[in-house]
Every structure is written in C-alpha cells, then in structure tokens.
Design brief:
InterPro entries: Chitin-bd_dom, Chitin-bd_dom_sf. The protein is mainly β and 260 residues long. Helix content is 8%, strand content 39%. A hairpin with a 6-residue loop joins strand 19 and strand 20. The longest helix is centred in the N-terminal third of the chain and has 20 residues.
Length: 260
C-alpha cells in the first residue's frame, strides 16, 4: 500500500514539474510574410535579368537568352536592376529570408501549426488561408508538438523540415498527423507545413491525409469546420467522403449533425 501511495505522489510531483515547463510563449506583432521570388523577363530593354535567386540571364534578344549561374562561393545571389542584373553576397528581397527572420505563414488549416524551419516559434491559425499569428517561445524552451505549447528544451527535441534537391512531400519528424511540402524553384527551397484532421493520418503513397471512420455518420473536419466527413458503408467497409457545408451556412455542428 505504501509503495502505491509513494508512486502516486511521485507521479503527481513529476506532473507538476512538467506543467510548470509549459509556456504559451509571446505573440509577435512585427513579423514578415513569406517571400516569393519572381523571375525577370527579357524584352524590356534590359541587358540581363535574374532568372532565379542564384542565376542571371543575358538578354541577347527577346528570343535568345543565355543563362549564367552566380558563383556559389563568392557572389551566390542575383540582384535585379533596371538595366542589368548582378551577382551579390546578399539575397534580393524577393528571395529566401535570413534564417533568423520570423516569417508568418498562410494557414492551411485552423489550429496550432509548428514552424517548418524554426523550432523556437509556432503558428496559431484562426481561418483557413488566413495569415498566422506567430508566437515565440521563451528562452530555454522550444515548441513541443505533443502539448502544442512551449516546453523546456531538455524534454523537447528540435524538429524542422528537411528538404531534398527536388520538390515533394516529406514527413515532419515522426508525426503521422503533421507533414510538409518542399517546393524547390528558382534556386529557393520553400517549406510549407500541413496538419491532418483529427482521426486522419498522412499517407505518403497517396500524398494526402486518410480519414479513419469510427462509425456511420457525419464528423467535423477539425482542419476546416466549414466542411465535414460523411462516413458510410460501401462494399462492406467504412469509407469517408469530405463534404462542404451548403451556401448560407457557416460551420458544421457535431452535436446537431448538420451545418448551421
């Protein structure tokens, strides 16, 4: 009996310690938006233009263009100009931001999303396709996906998205619910984070989230409450179909089982 009581006290003690580690972090007001590079086009009187963030093109004529990569060691970035482009040590404003720059994301779902490149911040999304609110974890903590808040670094590994040389979907750490897409274009690698809804997991073969029905009925899509999953039996097994709420309604009500 004493050993049981002792274990209970120890568990409560550890629970209190971990609870003290949890921190919501600070909402940042001055953040940048994700940047997108737009290649130049020959034909406007320029002698050269930036073909990508790391290469320029010599405009021999509107139809004859010679691509020239910037030196990756000395002057790796292309800077556009009114008449000619040049290679530089600093990226242009349309290219990837500095690694320490805080960048908001366009929300792919509502809820909390990790940052694909910085484990010291996370994003709170209130509307689909809206701009995220960015929160920074206090010193000594980083974003913990399990509790969706900041926790001490000693119990929270730093997880970021690792991309390859080509575009494609990748896993986010060991999570089956969170995943990312790497877009490699114009010398820039952009990382986009996604979250599967509740009861769904990411399937790399299908390149999408697979929803798991627990029974026949309608179930809210936790990523976007203006939609819901309709679960029904087909060919002897449960299948799910994503449905949108009708025009004139706002959200799916799980209790009422219809959109209101």
């Amino acid at each position: 009996m004493k050993s049981i009581i002792g274990c209970f006290i120890l568990l409560k003690f550890l629970e209190n310690i971990f609870a003290q580690d949890v921190d919501l972090g600070e909402k940042l007001e001055d953040v940048s938006l994700a940047r997108t590079f737009t290649p130049g086009v020959c034909g406007g009187g320029q002698s050269s233009i930036c073909a990508s963030c790391t290469s320029l093109s010599l405009c021999i004529s509107a139809s004859i263009v010679v691509d020239v990569p910037c030196n990756s060691t000395t002057y790796p970035y292309c800077i556009p100009g009114e008449v000619e482009a040049r290679c530089s040590t600093e990226p242009t404003s349309g290219c990837a931001p500095a690694s320490d720059e805080i960048v908001a994301i366009t929300c792919s779902s509502v809820g909390v999303l990790p940052d694909p490149s910085n484990c010291n911040i996370y994003h709170v999304c209130r509307t689909v396709q809206g701009i995220s609110d960015v929160y920074q974890c206090p010193t000594g903590t980083r974003f913990n996906l399990r509790v969706r808040q900041c926790r001490a670094r000693r119990v929270t590994p730093c997880v970021t998205v690792t991309c390859g040389a080509t575009s494609g979907f990748v896993y986010y750490g060991t999570s089956s619910q969170y995943y990312a897409y790497c877009l490699v274009a114009n010398g820039v690698t952009s990382r986009y984070i996604f979250k599967c809804p509740y009861r769904a997991s990411f399937n790399m073969s299908a390149k999408s989230c697979i929803y798991r029905c627990t029974g026949v009925g309608n179930f809210v899509n936790t990523n976007d409450p203006t939609t819901f999953y309709q679960c029904y039996v087909a060919n002897g097994r449960l299948v799910a179909a994503l449905r949108s709420c009708p025009v004139g309604t706002n959200t799916f009500n799980q209790t009422l089982q219809y959109c209101v």
